Amino acid sequence: MRRRGASAPDVDLTCRLGPRLVLPNPIVAASGTYGHSDEVARLGDPSRIGAVTTKSLSPFPWAGNPAPRVHETSAGMINSVGLQNPGVDAWLEHDLPPLLARGARVIASIWGRSIEDYAKAAAALGPVAARLVALEVNVSCPNVEDRGHMFAHRPEATAAAVQAAVEQVPGLAVFAKLSPNVTDLVEIAAAALQAGATGLTLINTLMGLAVDADRRRPRLGAGGGGLSGPAIKPVALRAVFDVTRALPGTPVIGTGGVASGVDAAEMLLAGATAVGVGTATFFDPRAPERIAAELARWCGAHAVAASAELVGRLEV
Q1: Topology adopted by domain 8-64+85-207+228-310
Q2: Single pTM value for the model
C-alpha cells in the first residue's frame, strides 16, 4: 500500500485472467458495443485498455432482428439487435486485421443455434488463435435443439456449448458469457467451468420490454429485448459476488452498468478479475479508455498500489 493521494501513474493495473492470460489493465470492451472491427477503435486507442471483445460471431452470416432495434431507457437502453454479424469467415478476412493493426488485444466472441454451430465457429478461429487473447462463448441465445430454450438457462446446455468450443481451441483461454435471467446462476457457472471454461463473463443483459403507449405496441421490432446500462449494475454486482464467493479463484469479467472508474472499483471489490464496459461506449466511444484512467486515479487516491488488490475484497 502507498500513502493516500499517490499519483495514478504509479498504480499497477496488471490483470491476470487465469494462468496464461495477462492484460495490462482490467478494462475490457464488452461484446456488442465496440463493433466487429475497428469502427470504434479508430476513434481512440484500443491498446490503452486490457482487451476488446468483438460482437458475437456465428459460423454463418446473420441479419439480426427487424428494426427498430434500440431504445433508450431512463437508466440505459434496451436492445434487440439479434446478434447480427457477417459470419466468422468474413470477419477473419475483413475485420480482424484492422483491429489488430490498431494494437487491440482481441477476445473473439461466438454464438450459435446448436452445439455444432459453437464447434464450427470455434474451429474457424483455431488457425488464428495465437493472434487472439481469449475466446468468449456467448450462450445467451436460443438453442434450436432444445425447443428454443436459451443455452445459458440450463446447466447441461451451457456445458455442451462450452465444451464444443473449448475442444477446438486448445491452449486458448475461454470465457463463458452467462445470462442473469436464471434462478441459480452459480449452478450454471459451475457447469461452464467443469466443461473447460477458463472463466466467466458476468453478466449479459436482463430481459425487458419497452412499450409505446400511443401506438399500443412494443418499441422494438422483435418485441422484447435486453436491458443494459446503469440500471443493471446492482444485478451484475450481485451476480459477480455470488459466483466468486461460491467458486473462489474463478477469473470473472464483471460486466453491467460500468460507466466510471469508481464503478470499475466496485466490480473488482465484488470479486471480478476484470471489468467489462458496454453501454457506456454508445454514449462515449472512448469510455473504456477513460474508465481505465479513472480507475488508476481512484487507486492512487485510495492508497491502492495495484488494482488486483481490490479483487474480492468487499467486506461483508
Answers
A1: TIM Barrel (3.20.20)
A2: 0.95
Helical (H) or strand (E) element with 28: strand 27-29
**DSSP 8-state class, residue 246:** H
pLDDT in tens, 19-60: 889 999 999 999 999 999 999 999 999 999 999 999 999 999
One-letter identity of residue 6:
A
For residue 202, give the nearest of 194, 190, 214, 211 by alpha carbon. Answer: 190
Instruction: Show the cell assigned to 123.
Output: 474451429
Q: In angstroms, rounded to a whole number, what is the distance separating the alpha carbons of residues 240 and 312?
A: 9
**Residue 166 identity:** V
In the 8-state DSSP scheme, what is residue 91?
I
The alpha-helical segments, DSSP class H, found in 61-141 are 88-90, 96-101, 115-125
Beta bridge partners of residue 134, listed in sequence order: 107
Bond from prior residue into 248 cis (ω within 30 degrees of 0): no
Just list the catalytic residues.
141
Question: Roughly what angle, to the nearest 10 degrees, separates helices 261-270 and 287-301?
Answer: 70
